[in-house]
Amino acid sequence: MQKWDYLYIVVDYEGNNFLGRPRYVNGQELPNWEQGENIMGVMNTLGWKGWERVSNAFGLDFQARKSKQQTFIFKRPRVQ
Prior knowledge:
- By secondary structure, the protein is mostly beta strands.
- The chain has one domain.
- Helix content is 12%, strand content 48%.
- It contains one helix and five strands.
- A five-stranded antiparallel beta sheet has the order 3-2-1-5-4, covered by helices on one side.
- The longest helix is centred in the middle third of the chain and has 10 residues, at 39-48.
């Protein structure tokens, strides 16, 4: 039976920038995440490394009535 590795990335959106930057990976905050690569570049890199996006969900700021974060979930076959 196939086993999978999973990767959870939380993207933070600054202002009206629709290309947010990953802030957390598997629950750990990235150092200097504000200067990191935007999510499109990260998704391309992960794809080249065999990761496939399987889901994403928005976190909503109800007072501002807009999304501030988005969680992406990736998987790839576990290497035995």
